[in-house]
Amino acid sequence: MNLLVTGASGFIGSFVVEEALRRGMEVWAGVRKSSSRQYLQDSRIHLLELDFSSADTLREQLRGHHFDYVVHAAGATKCLHTDDFFRINTEGTKHLVDALLALNMPLKRFIYLSSLSVFGAIREQQPYQEIDENDLPRPNTAYGRSKLEAERYLDSIGNDFPYIVLRPTGVYGPREKDYFLMAKSIKQHMDFSVGFRRQDITFVYVEDVVQAVFLAFDHGMNGRKYFLSDGNIYQSSDFSDYIYEALGRPFRVKVKAPLWVLRLVTRIGEYWGHITGRMTALNNDKYNILRQRNWRCNIEPTMDELGYHAHYDLKRGTDLTIRWYQENHWL
C-alpha cells in the first residue's frame, strides 16, 4: 500500500511516517524545501517536495504517483498574519484535494487532521457538557476558523471523495514544542497558570492520534468527523502536576494570574512577533485557547465507528514525554 503523508517533518506527521514503515507500507513524505529532515532519516522513506501554494504546481509534483492513502497533516498552528492561516491551512488543503481530483487519484481514503478548535468556546456554562459533532462551530481563533473552512471545502466536494476528518484535542508527546514550554518553565521553578474559573481540559497522546489515523483507513464512513481525546477530563493543574512529578519534584513557585495578565502578555508577544518577524507561542490565538474553559468532547462515535480506544492517559503520556525531552537534551 502506498501512503502520502503531508507535513511529514512535523510533530504528528513524523509519527505517522514511522508507524507506516512499521506496517510495511511504501511511504512518501511530503515536505517543504525548507523542512527539517531530522525525523525522516530512514532510507525507506521517499521524500517528495510539495508546494501547496498552487493546485497546478501540486498536480505536476504528484503526477506519476499512485497513492492508496493520503494523510494531510501539513498546516500552520502559529502565523504572524491572520491571512497566512487561511493561505496555508485552508487554501493549501483545497489545492491538494483539487490536484488529487484532477489526477483522478484512486484513493481509498484521505485523512484530514483538523482540530477540536474548530468549535471554539461553546458549552461554557457550568456544569460543562461535551462538545458534540452536531453543535454549531464558533471558532474563536484564526487557526480554528482556517481549519473549519478547510473542512467545509471537503464537505462541498460530495461523496465521490473518500475523506474522513479527525479532530484531536490538545496533542502532546515527544517532539512537541508548545507544551514543552510548560515543562521548561517548571524545570526552571516557575509553574504559571491563568484564570480562576473551573477549566475542564482534554488531551490526546500523539501515538493515539496515529492509532486513529490508521483505524480510519479501513473503518468509519466517508465524510464523517471524529473527535480524539484520551477519554478523560482533567483540571488545568493536572498537566503541570504530572510534569512536576516526572521531573523529580523540583522546587517550584506556583503562580495563578487573572486573565487580563495573560491578555497583556499575549498582546506584547504578538507585537514583538511583528517587530522581529517571528511569531511567539504567546499570541492572540493562544489567549483565546487558554481562556476557554470547556474542552470536553464526545468520542463515543470515534470508539464505535473506528474502534478507537486510547492507550495513554495523561499521566503515562507525560512520563514518556518528559523522559524523551530529557534523553534528547531538550530539558
What this model shows, in words?
With 331 residues, the chain is an alpha/beta fold. It has a domain at 2-173 and 203-231 and 295-312: Rossmann fold (3-Layer(aba) Sandwich), CATH 3.40.50.720. Helices cover 42% and strands 16% of the residues. Strands 3-2-1-4-5-6-11 form a 7-stranded parallel beta sheet, with helices on one face. A two-stranded parallel ribbon has the order 7-10. Strands 8-13 form a two-stranded parallel ribbon. InterPro entries: Epimerase_deHydtase, Lipid_A_modif_metabolic_enz, NAD(P)-bd_dom_sf. This is NAD(P)-dependent oxidoreductase. Residues 4-225 form the NAD-dependent epimerase/dehydratase domain. It comes from Prevotella illustrans.
Please supply descriptive tags for the structure shown above:
331 residues; NAD(P)-bd_dom_sf; 42% helix; alpha/beta; Rossmann fold
The CATH architecture classification of the domain at 2-173 and 203-231 and 295-312 is 3-Layer(aba) Sandwich
CATH superfamily of the domain at 2-173 and 203-231 and 295-312: NAD(P)-binding Rossmann-like Domain
Counted by DSSP, the helix tally is 11
End-to-end separation:
38 Å
What is the gyration radius calculated from CA atoms? 20 Å
Strand count, sense and barrel status of the largest sheet are: 7 strands, parallel
Physical arrangement of strands within the biggest beta sheet: 3-2-1-4-5-6-11
User: Briefly, what CATH class of the domain at 2-173 and 203-231 and 295-312?
Assistant: Alpha Beta
Unreliable segments (pLDDT under 50, ≥5 consecutive)?
Answer: none
DSSP strand content: 15-25%
Q: If you consult CATH, what is the topology of the domain at 2-173 and 203-231 and 295-312?
A: Rossmann fold
Number of strands: 13
Q: Kindly name the structural category.
A: alpha/beta
Helix content range: 40-55%
pLDDT average, as an integer?
Answer: 94
N to C succession of SSEs:
EHEEHEHEHEEHEEEHEEHEHHHH
Categorize the overall geometry. globular
